[in-house]
Amino acid sequence: MKDKPILRYNANERTNHWLVAILFIMAALSGLALFHPALFWLSHLFGGGPWTRILHPFMGVLMFVFFFFLVLRFWRANFFIANDRLWLKRIDRVMRNEEEGVPPIGKYNPGQKLLFWTLLLCMLILLLSGIVIWRAWFSQYFDIGAIRLATLLHALAAFVLVLSIIVHIYAGIWIKGSVGAMLHGWVSRAWAKKHHELWYRDVTREDPPDSQISKKG
Amino acid sequence: MASQDIIARSATTTAPPSIRQQEEVAKLIDTTKCIGCKACQVACSEWNELRDEVGHSYGTYDNPHDLGAETWTLMRFTEHENADGNLEWLIRKDGCMHCADPGCLKACPSPGAIIKHANGIVDFNQDHCIGCGYCITGCPFNIPRISQKDHKAYKCTLCSDRVAVGLEPACVKTCPTGAIVFGSKEDMKEHAAERIVDLKSRGFDNAGLYDPDGVGGTHVMYVLHHADQPKLYAGLPDQPVISPLVGLWKGVSKPLALLAMGAAVLAGFFHYVRIGPNRVEEDEHPSTPDTSVHVVDPAVHVYDPHKPGGQGEERP
Amino acid sequence: MTNHWTDIANANLILVMGGNAAEAHPCGFKWVTEAKAHNKARLIVVDPRFTRTASVADYYAPIRTGTDIAFMGGLINYLLSNDKIQHEYVHNYTDVSFIVKAGFTFEDGLFSGYDADKRSYTDKSGWSYEIGEDGFAKVDPTLQDPRCVFQLMKQHYSRYTPELASQVCGMPVDSMRKIWEEIATCSQPGKTMTILYALGWTQHSIGSQIIRSAAMVQLLLGNVGMPGGGVNALRGHSNIQGLTDLGLLSNLLPGYLTLPSDAEQDYNAFIAKRASKPLRPGQLSYWQNYGKFHVSLMKAWYGANATAENNWGYDYLPKLDIPGYDVLKMFDMMAKEQVNGYFCQGFNPIAALPDKNRVTAALSKLKWLVVMDPLATETSEFWRNAGPFNDVDSANVQTEVIRLPTTCFAEEDGSLVNSSRWLQWHWKGAEGPGQARTDVWIMSALFLRLRERYQKEGGAWAESILKLNWPYKTAHEPTPEEIAKEFNGYAVADVTDASGATIKAGQQLGAFAQLKDDGSTASGCWIFCGSWTEQGNQMARRDNADPFGMKQNLGWAWAWPANRRILYNRASADVQGKPWSPEKRLVWWNGKAWGGTDVPDFKADVPPEAGMNPFIMNPEGVARFFALDKMAEGPFPEHYEPFETPIGVNPMHPNNKKAISNPAGRVFDSVWDTLGQAKDFPYAATTYRLTEHFHFWTKHCPINAITQPEQFVEIGEVLAKEKGIAAGDRVRVSSKRGHIEAVAVVTKRIRPLQVNNQTVHQIGIPLHWGFTGVTRHGYLTNTLVPFLGDGNTQTPESKSFLVNVEKI
User: Where along the chain is [4Fe-4S] cluster 4 bound (chain B) (predicted)?
Assistant: First the structure.
């Protein structure tokens, strides 16, 4: 039992994640194509400018929908707990791969949680502002001031989202074992204990879950 | 056909082909001479072969009701009672102003979909238009319209095809009262100055030329009886500028954002190079289920759901 | 127009009244903007509505529809009492000094000689000058004689005080005074005002008199015959001037010659009556040449068949049994089943004539109706039920309708006569579609068949047809060139003109002065003589050279008469023959002859000292303030209310019921019952055109339909608020004769007026929509208009009637 890996994500969760990931990549690449001339060439990935323009909002909406499923699934795990504050205070140690003085954390570390809520916020902004600037269907219902504001917000939210995802991806590359968790679902016990100790204890505890240390809220 | 007179090109960061030198042109619309006959609208439809729908009357003389992909110019009628209580019927031919600093071009993401010629004409190239509508967002005058048929953006071309071969725009050609004139921008300013003298002699003390600096001047200018209140003319912007929102969006934020994204990637890369990956050493792995949670740092906050208030407390 | 389009640029003041030049004549209106831009001219607009013209005016004042004579009468009074007249002009070039017969009176709104039962002036004997023993009219150059025209006029208009005029017109007194003062400045010899009017003056029961009142103002100011002056009718169709020139009216022949009446069986008496002898010594009285014009016309029509022996075919001409068969009369007769068949050539009567339901009923009585038109007109489908827009019971219409598609003007060569009297040649722009044929082709085919039947079967008055000259190369389709040359005229035999030059038989004539009454010349329309000479087609000229900078452009096309651009232009020079002002030089005496920037409207070799006066068509040689017996309702214009008056009383004659509306207006007996009262229909309505459309034609054109797609009516903000009507609401507008429904345009441009101490609201009703075409279908506006009109021209009163308005 002791060496048995732990299932971090089941098949549905993994599928959902990767759907969101793929849609994000597409929405981001198409969005970036429209964002900066230097990246307009990306529009060729989607069949040219008009197709980029046509597809981008659909990809975005679809991404939001799937992301929303993820939110439904994981939102509880992303509430902050007591240890998270210290963890964040000691983020420099985390960045240096040091573990000394870094408190144990739950299924998600506070960075991931911040990411989670940032993503949710960005996606909401993107969705709402995206509707306002969706020329083919909705823009005629909004005045030009609203459209301009929405355009700016859309770009800002997308920027934050992209930055966040860059961090997210790098974290996956950096923290060995996490990509695997999302690919096949399993993590080693050592990995779990090292990175998400409280979660590790949670899932390895044989007792009913009346442990002293639990998620906050 | 290759052009050599393009001095600005949308979504293009290098110099466009701009070797050819041209005098700046301008269309001057004298609202004080305009009788609102809509001949310009008709000439525009005829020359550009546009046919909007037969719409409805909305209780005004403005028909079609708004600019559209098939209506590039439109007379807008405003009834205004002046300070003396006298009625004025202000009639303004609305359409693209051909800004020196065009907001549409600034906003456009598609390389070459919007160009500015050396003579000042801002032209849309629908071949390159992707239909995103950013030009509408960028335009301080709310002019471009996306066609619901082909999802391309359209607006007045200042008859760039006619001007290119030495003709005046179709609306100018047809205007029966000479309210629309066309020529070099300098000549048009001179003509406007004469008109303003005449208008002042008729009691329009605030007569003036509308060539707003906020967009670097325009290549369609108005003579207004009330140049101090452009808004009277169906909401002509008093001081048009590219919206700061658009400026932010398409200005500094564009390179900065790109830089930031690049920096983030690089930061990750160097973090990896310098700090390296965070691996789990399998021998660290505890041989027994570790339940000794008590050896954690004393600073760790714990939470006791049974404590009143449900708040965490400092671990002793 | 006494003057012409480009000449408007010479004006110092432009009065647009009874018209909306910017709206209906935008191309001609450019000369108004030219005058403003380069002549510092001021533009005044007087109209019930603040129009597109008003939008560029220096001054606008509202007026109640149909009250223009009160405004002009007040202005005449103002000019006379403030001595703002061009004295030398008025004294020498008008009839002010002429003594009027003692029998002429004006009492309580009626002139002498009125027969109330016949509703007309049956005894006009008093409406004339005292004739002296020498056979000439008596004059008093001191203007002191109480019976001289000056004194009578002064007395007549003294009643038109500013206050009373304002009570009639609804124009505030200060606005009125301001305009009058501005107009009065044009009595200076160097300043001219031009008056531009259109159907806003003609389409009243007093339309002709409104225009006369304007002419009187211009004469007082010395502005007739002057550059930038005149009284200028802006015609409503591009070739409606040509229509009247060619006499397409039931009582006229081409060139304003007249048809004889039944009583005129004697040819010589017919000519003598029209060839007026001078009424003053030394005057030209150009109509003395009437016989030459008439005989030349008959030679053009009947060729060799018109001979001295048969009085040049006098018996071939029909003789009128009544004054005329105008369209109102024809449709009245049609309704009484006195007309069986009707040819509608380029005419859409159910849309264009008043009281659409009456017209439809009349058409339904016909056995057959032929419609010749390029478009599918409402008239050609008058029998079709088009829902609420034409709610007829098709089963009850037995009329056989035959539609003959014609080409339109752009699909044939020919000439158009514009308001400036310019004959401008135009060239075909495209072939007509489908089976369309030219009007000439259709009419020729009709003629040839008629002639064949008369030849075979004979019939009443067969000679009128059989003797006609038909010299065209292709009998079934005379070319426009052949017809134009015939109108100009040619020598039938060798003739010698006044200069001694010989014109060989068959050659084109050069001018109407060459016409003869001995059968040696032929001319289909004497006033067009000179338009196609031996030098070729003068109408096709396009030389816009302007050597004197006076905008006369004598090389552009050709103007009747004699390429003369401004009528009565001798009056632009003083008695000595010098221009009144260097800026206004037009023609002058150079010591040997008259000449200048225009073709003199005068006998070129008569020196000023000979005393010949400028108005050479009048036997008296001067212009008339006193219209003699020429008008149906009196020698001086007098204000009468529209037949449907919103105030029910004529404030000028509050106690005479006979003088409320025009006592000599054209009203058929059956029409009285169709007139509404202000208590049921409280609002004064007026109809008009919009710049986006042309009549009932352009609703068939997509672009016009786009620019003005749907029928609307204009309602002032105040009334709209009272009625709870917002812009864009649908409203029903009804008169005693029917109703229409349309979108409401609620506007500040129509304001309530204070008239006769009450508030009068006016409703504006554009007329372009119908139940055919590509616009959104609508009602024919003339459903609302009463079937009555002016007693002189028979023009319907489309500009003044009563309606009610309700929100639907």
Answer: 108, 129, 132, 135
